[in-house]
Amino acid sequence: MLVSHLLAHLEYLDETVAELTREIEQRMRPFERQRELLCSIPGVADRTAEVIVAELGPDVSRFPSHRHAASWAAVCPGHDESAGKRRSGKTRKGDRWLRVALIEAANSAAGRTKDTYLRAQYLRIKRRRGHQKAIVAVAHSILVSAYHVLAEGRPYEELGGDYFLRREDHERITQRLVRQLERLGQRVTLEPMADAAR
């Protein structure tokens, strides 16, 4: 008897999910272009794009800048400073549905993509600040990207996994890597390659 009740309940839930999915599809039809543009961001799938459109809105002009949108969604670092001492960078509570969708997208972008800006950002921050802060930073980047994608009506432009390396000064990178090898007990002698592209 209990099993039959559970099966009946599961059947009811499946029917409800199917009905709500049809309703969402119908309501999203006018915003199909925005959904396609948002899906060009790594980690953002159809459901995440739907949540972004529903919570942020298809027209982001109500936010003066991407900073206002990130603050509203509460995926930007908090600022708790007193007497010149920074006490916490914890984010405040914001739009729960949007935040959850962005965190899921960030986990997907950080773990399932390769050679992307978002994965490089995650790995770079994770080394210094840990997994959770890195994921929130990637979620913030996804929201900023979504803001610009919706505002400009253009798909996401991938910067590449080597973006941070291209941005850094080659001399500083070399010195940092030499120091790391020396800390591991290696003696390093540098000799520039004749055909090295700068």
Textual characterization of the structure:
With 198 residues, the protein is mainly alpha-helical. The chain has one domain (2-164). It contains nine helices and two strands. The chain has helices at 2-28, 32-38, 46-56, 66-73, 96-112, 117-129, 131-152, 163-167, 170-183, and strands at 80-82, 85-88. It has a two-stranded antiparallel ribbon. The radius of gyration is 22 Å and the shape is elongated. The mean pLDDT is 84.
Q: Quick recap of the structure?
A:
It is built from 9 helices and 2 strands.
Shape: elongated
Strand residues, percent: under 5%
Task: Give Rg in angstroms.
Answer: 22 Å
Q: Largest sheet, if any? A: 2 strands, antiparallel
What is the number of helices?
A: 9
Task: Extract low-pLDDT stretches.
Answer: none
What series of H and E elements makes up the topology?
Answer: HHHHEEHHHHH
- Total strand count, please? 2
Compute the number of structural domains: 1
Mean pLDDT: 84
Structural category: mainly alpha
Task: Output the strand order for the largest sheet.
Answer: 1-2
How far apart lie the N and C ends?
73 Å
Helix content: 55-70%
